[in-house]
Amino acid sequence: MSIGAHLVELRKRLVIAALGLVIGMVIAFIITDPVIQLITEPIRVINEQRGDAQSMLNFPTVTSAFDLRIRIAFTIGIFLSAPVWIWQIWAFVVPGLTRKEIRYTASFVGAAIPLFFVGCWVGLLIVPHVIELMAGFTPDGAANLFSATEYYDFVFKLMLVIGVAFVLPVFLVALNVAGVLTGRAILKGWRVAIIVATVFAALATPAADVISMVMLAGILVVLFFAAAGVSLLFDRRKAKRLNTMGLPGSVV
Asked: By the number of CB atoms within 10 A of the CB, which of 14, 119, 175, 230 ranks highest?
């Protein structure tokens, strides 16, 4: 295909992906109330613990409530339309890949997407503990008026960061398949991985919330060792294949 034909194909894929996003946003806008109920549950817990109603979302401008629903609709719309835009990216890239590359890419995408959603779910589990813990430092006689936009951004960003962190082991395996890193090299970095996972968990959770920090760090470490194990398995299979062909198959 010529450059012009590629651009036409890209425009077609982008239009379809955009339509999918718009439809997803419309559907998501309808279910914003349950989502708001879910993410504001920690606020109700705080009020129950205090025996008052001093904690609440604050909408400082006339359009704040509508803006919050648009933000939520956009975020959920991206997730709902994921099958559409992922397929459009896949359909645009696949013609330029070999059969082996298609198989590997499909495997990585198939592993990364569930891990990302699992990470978001773990983030959603951690969020209430973080909010409740931070609200505990509010002095007596004071109220927690959470800005709706900042509150949503905090919840969403924490879920997104943890979701992305869960996908990183997939990239380690991808580097192994590409021949950049061996399984042994990945495994040798286990001390660094534990330190990085611990520091990341400490930054993603409050310093006083030790339970959430340990849980998140533990999950990340387990995922790292799982990636190292898969890479070692791939290296062993690669070595056997090379030995069968009569080539040196030792893996460093």
From this structure: 119
Provide the 10 A C-beta neighbour count for residue 52. 10
pLDDT digit string, tens, across residues 188-227: 888 988 998 888 888 777 655 677 788 888 888 988 898 8
Whole-structure pTM value: 0.72
